Amino acid sequence: MSINDMLKSHTAEGRLKVYEPLFPGDPMIRALYLTPSVCSLLEGHTKAEAKKGSIQSIMDQFVSGRVVSVGHNRKCHMSLLKPQRDGIWDMRVATPLPAIRIFGQFAEQDVFIALSWEYRGLLGRAISRPWKTEIRRCKAEWRKLFPTYNSMKGESIHEYLTDAHSE
Amino acid sequence: MNISRTPILNEVLDNLATIPEDTYDYFQERQKGRLYDKIIRGFWEKEKEGFSRAQLARRMNKRPEQITRILAAPGNWTLDTISDLVLAIYGGEIDFQIIDFNHIPKRNYTASDNFSLEEKPSTEINNIEIVTSIENNTRPTTSSEIRN
């Protein structure tokens, strides 16, 4: 079974959901899949519901194929986390506070699987234990969904993402 | 299974409804994202012609590291930042146009239509117009006309 077949199967059985842009006129150029945990951010099951508009706007930026800013600036849309060889990314929702990070991995170029999320304030510094825990959780979620496939590992951010602008 | 979408435009189009805060957040971020897309793509085009960040910095009378920071993300952009970038990159200004949400085209496909990345629809992603030349008594040339 190819990874695309697995994505279809997970989508059909509700383990992943395909994100469609909120704005009806926007095209779908990149693909974004959400786990139920990440979906809860958009469906009002968490306190983070107040941030729904900003989260959807960043997801729309990604899916609609607009330029994605990549870097460690907290205002960037996405970042490739260290160690970069792990291929773990986050989507950054800086405003309104409290900031949120959505963690995930790429199945292939422009196909992002959003696996988990956490409030930025609970993560502490970049090399702290909560960060490492979150990265482990992200990897575990991937293995649960795709036990026979590794996530994409690229040499540069442009291998992961078309039309990315890095710092 | 696809995410059920908030009827975001319904609440915007209902003149009697209070627009929720997260809808305002959505459109604020969306405008920034669309402008970022337009300006960065314009900068990439200029780079192909040999225009560098250092040249942009000189043109904007800023240090190269300031330019790097400005281009890194649209989060802190103000109308002044946008005006300066459009002037320095395009040698032009933004032509404002209000889009009536009653008349926006809808996608004629959904993710459930076995959407595949190999069959990306060719769609105009960003219809923000930048005016790049103005002659007396003539209509300005816009970026979409240049593309065509």
Outline the structure in words.
The complex is a heterodimer of chains A (167) and B (148). Chain A has 167 residues and is of the alpha/beta class. Chain A has one domain. Chain A is 28% helix and 23% strand. Chain A has 5 helices and 8 strands, in the order αββααβββββααβ. In chain A, the strands form 2 sheets. A 6-stranded mixed sheet of chain A has the order 1-2-7-6-5-4, with helices on both faces. A two-stranded parallel ribbon of chain A has the order 3-8. Chain B is mainly alpha-helical and 148 residues long. Chain B has one domain. A 3-stranded antiparallel sheet of chain B has the order 1-2-3. In chain B, α2 runs parallel beside α5 and α3 crosses α4. The longest helix of chain B has 28 residues. Chain B is elongated. Chain B starts with 7 loop residues before the first helix and ends with a helix. Chains A and B meet through α1, β1 and α3 of A and α2 and α4 of B.
Give the SSE layout.
The complex is a heterodimer of chains A (167) and B (148).
Chain A lengths: L2 H10 L4 E2 L12 E4 L1 H4 L12 H12 L4 E3 L7 E3 L7 E6 L6 E9 L2 E9 L9 H17 L11 H4 L3 E3 L1
Parallel strand pairs in A: 2-7, 3-8
Antiparallel strand pairs in A: 1-2, 4-5, 5-6, 6-7
Chain B lengths: L7 H6 L7 H28 L4 H7 L4 H9 L6 H12 L2 E3 L33 E5 L7 E2 H5 L1
Antiparallel strand pairs in B: 1-2, 2-3
Q: Quaternary arrangement of the chains shown?
A: heterodimer
Count structural domains of chain B.
1
Mean pLDDT of chain A: 91
Helix content of chain A: 25-40%
Strands side by side in the biggest sheet of chain A: 1-2-7-6-5-4
Q: Tally the structural domains of chain A.
A: 1
**From the alpha-carbon coordinates, what is the Rg of chain B to the nearest angstrom?**
19 Å
Helix content of chain B: 40-55%
> What profile does the largest beta sheet of chain A have?
6 strands, mixed
Distinct helical segment count of chain B:
6
